[in-house]
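Z., the sequence and structure:
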Amino acid sequence: MTPSTDPTTAFFDDLASIGHVPLFHSISGTIRIDLNDGGETIHWYIAIDRGDVKVSHRSAKADAVMRTEKKLFDGMAKGTVNATAAMLRGVLMLEGDLELVASFARLLPGPPRSLASFLERQKEMSQ
């Protein structure tokens, strides 16, 4: 992430550059993420076709929609905010295919001290 790139943009740029997510090999659908940023709505649109992922800023109809504040999603993209906890607190609204949203949420990083983050750091250091 460059100093001028926010965590959300960096997360979606990384997702777009991957292009194919093996975790999604049996998943197809669309997710629109609407982020409120000071009265403006920023849209992220993720199209998944059996693992092939495309990211854009479309504001089109989607199978699932996530709505929250951009600052909160920045925390989710950094791994400092848990999506499930945000949903339970009522600050992350979900509509549509919740199974698709749950699959997408698996891509979000865990807290810096989580086991998943530890294992990822170990993997990076061994390369």
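The beta strands are 28-37, 40-49, 52-56, 64-69, 93-96. The domain at 7-126 is CATH 3.30.1050.10 (Nonspecific Lipid-transfer Protein; Chain A).

Let me know what you think.
H.
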